Amino acid sequence: MPEHDFDEYFQYYEKLVENMELLEALVVIHERTKTIVNITDVPGDYKYAQDKWSVKQLLCHLIDAERIFCHRALCFARNDTTDLPGYNHDTYVQFDNSINRTVSNILIEYQAVRHSSVCLFQSFTDEMLSKSGMANGKLLSVKGIGKIIAGHEKHHINVLTEKYLNQ
Q: CA-CA distance, 115 to 71, in Å (whole number)?
């Protein structure tokens, strides 16, 4: 059982991009991410504290989370009524193989994943965007998932800027 309430947790991410249209949020936030990561000279294995993720782990976490959320959005848009499982992001990070990858390699993958996500959300009709389903016992809409993806990225890039780059 997670230690946090996913309803509030997801609302936080949605609020970070509430004044943006869905596709705009996915594109604009990601462009900011690419700019920030590309200009940083912080090593990819840098952690601002012992028990925190490295820059590379943070980026891999964003990729993993986006893939999982897009899967959820696709299932709901296609009328799949399965209650989808949650996932443990700390376990995913533990096994992400980021230690053997470069930041530039991870960014190439991240750009491919975001391109795929934008294409997916562009393919949805308004009716599909309004559909919802259950994931980890919580009700989520397809459109809400897109906003969560963008807000989740914005949150983590804010952390990167504040904690990793302001050393």
A: 15
State both tokens at 53.
């993720």
SS3 of the chain: helix, strand, coil, percent, to 5: 65, 5, 30
Q: Going by C-beta distance under 8 Å and a sequence separation of 6 or more, which residues neighbour residue 91?
A: none
- Residue whose tokens read 């930041």: 103
Say what the pTM is.
0.92
Cα separation, 75 vs 21, whole angstroms: 22
Secondary element (H or E) of residue 154: helix 142-159
Maximum alpha-carbon separation in the chain: 47
List phi, psi (to 5°) of 42: -70, 130
Length of the chain: 167
E strand or H helix that includes residue 132: strand 132-135
Tokens of 162: 């504040």
Judge whether residue 118 has pLDDT over 70. Answer: yes
Of residues 2 and 137, the one with the higher pLDDT is 137
Residues linked to residue 141 through DSSP beta bridges, in sequence order: 132
Count CB-CB contacts under 10 A for residue 1: 4
